[in-house]
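User:
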Amino acid sequence: MESPGNMDSGTAMGKLQEAAHGSGHDYASGSPHIKHYGLRTKVSETLQEVIGAVIDQLGECRVLEVGAGHGTFTDHILAAGAEVEVTEMSRPSAELLQRRFRNNSAVRVTYDPEGVNSNAASGELHAVVCLSVLHHIPDYLSAVKNLVARINPGGAFISFQDPLWYSRQTRRSRLVERCAYLSWRLTRRSLKRGFATSIRRIRGIYDESSPSDMVEYHVVRNGVDEQALADFLQRDFDEVRVFSYWSTQGSIAQSIGERLCAPNTFAVVATGRKVVAVS
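Assistant: Predicted structure:
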């Protein structure tokens, strides 16, 4: 494993990620796909299904997991039988991952303050996994293009927990999500911070030095264009599935929203990487 102590100081975004996700940070508290059993189960089942299919076809599966956090889903990738390289923009999280998996030869940890390091997973690559990642990358389509180019024929691309393109969300869903967010902030005794950042967001004013504005509220200001992403992946994979769902931090709001609200979040699963034509 690469030692964080010998790494580059990182980009501005990497430093903001470290400020927001420092030592002792609890990813589950603000990550619905980790916090809520139903969402977590959907992610883990999808990972095991897709990775299992790749192994059945190719006999192996080497996975690049971009932005692994504390390795919640790395465990499921390993359980499916894959080898995995995990990357993290936050140095404390990368160090924690190294400690967690230091005795597991199937895991390699890379500290990557740029978010998508072209040097990561330079060998055979059969799947890329991005969980709550794309909305942190300004030019996410170019990032996905670079990642897909490194996937072997027969491989897969999996992305979960990115906000739907805002113009395709209903006004009711957006309003409920904002209220649910503020309610969650109240439970964390940080309602003032929640109101302040919400007001700045409504006004379109962002502080590029603030973790609240650049990490919590994402670099992508209008959500992720799921249709553009699917259209791109269709060119390189035999099958592309996009499914949307409701997602918010609070447990009660999650339960109510699943029954009453239109989706605000999506996942995309692309399988059957096509053979690249040689010109």
